[in-house]
Amino acid sequence: MLLHTRGIVFRALRYGETSVIADIFTEEKGLRSFIGGGVRTAKARMPFGLFQPMTVVDMVCYFRDTDEHLNRLREMRTAEVFSQIPFDIRRGAVALFMAEVCRKSIHADEENPALFEFLLDNLRLLDTSPHSVANLHLHFLTHLSGHLGFQPQGEPGGELFLDLQEGVFLPEHPQHAQYLGPQQAMPLLELLHTPLEQCHQVALDRPERKALLNGLLKFYQLHVPGFSEIHTPEILEMVMEG
User: Fold this and answer.
1) Measured distance CA(44)–CA(56) in Å, rounded
2) CB neighbour burial string for 78-97, b if at least 16 within 10 angstroms, e if fewer
3) 238: pLDDT confidence band, cut at 50, 70 and 90?
């Protein structure tokens, strides 16, 4: 069948002389793999630049609904033109981080419009926000966990710990080592209850962001099967303001 849908590129790998194989999260069919032929040539109808991580595309492909089948792209063009992500090193680093996390945690091969819109909302704010984006990747991780089915549960009130195994906030630490103390748990709880547009208002310095990010990644490792080491935090640490 011929499928016309929007998609968000998670990763593209060079294949052969001029082709690519891309993992694209589509609005209609979830995460799928596609092959684009002749995209790495001077006269390509689908330029290689369309396959950069977190590019939002409008695509037409020959689609077969089987896990083993590699779907062939027929047409692809930009669906959202970003004015800052491609040119601002901090915003670009956050987009790369989002792409790596998505690639390692999203495996759904079925329609998920709420998750698609969530990713779009984060990308649009990342591109247009006049405020610092230093907290956006933390807010993204906190709320992506809800779409994946393991978002931490708790309401503000007093000093709390986060049980990473159970995903719940507690007044005292659990009887195991997999938890976050109040220094990380309290700002995480604040991010959980803060709208995306206001996440820059959560007060965190660079060491606190790093510690919270490490805690959140540990949380993902406990709840996402096969969630392996993430490499983009090193880039974030280098470029993000304090």
Assistant:
1) 18
2) ebbebeebeebebbbbbbbb
3) confident
Does the residue 83 lie in any domain? no
Shared-domain flag, residues 115 and 227:
yes
The length of the chain in residues reads 242
Domain region containing 51:
2-78
| Longest alpha-carbon distance in the chain | 62
Query: Which runs of consecutive H residues, i.e. helices, occur in the chain?
Result: 89-105, 113-128, 136-148, 182-192, 206-223, 233-239
> Does the global pTM surpass 0.85?
yes
In this predicted structure, the answer to whether residue 89 has a pLDDT above a threshold of 60 is: yes
Helix (H) or strand (E) holding 75: strand 71-78
For residue 76, report the phi and psi dihedrals to the nearest 5 degrees. -160, 140
CATH number of the domain encompassing residue 184: 1.20.1440.120
- Indicate whether 242 pLDDT > 60: no
